[in-house]
Amino acid sequence: MKIVVPEGGGAVGIYGFARPKPERADELERLLLSFVEPTRAEPGSMQYQVHRDVADPSTFVFYELWRSADDLRAHLARPELAHFQEHRMDYLREDLEIHWLTPLSVTP
Questions:
Q1: Which residue segments constitute the domains of the chain, with CATH numbers given?
Q2: What are the residue boundaries of the ABM domain, all occurrences included (predicted)?
Q3: Is pLDDT at 22 greater than 80 in this prediction?
């Protein structure tokens, strides 16, 4: 799956699910958490959160909020994210599930 950021002006949000292979879950958790601080420091990053699903702790849930689609595209082009996208199925039992959001109540 190639991540294609929708066109449009203004902020863009994402939530999604990563369902790891059982034997790679701890490794995937460390990898996802390693993205948090660098991502939060990027221009245009308004929120970047990684969670575990309470009902299914084997599922990671992520939430991102970006100032613009261009900022998100720049984020996805970073080497570590491009590498993850290319190798994600080494960790996942099924591909990422991504949902796009149009934020209605963004605090500047």
A1: 12-101 (3.30.70.100)
A2: 12-100
A3: yes
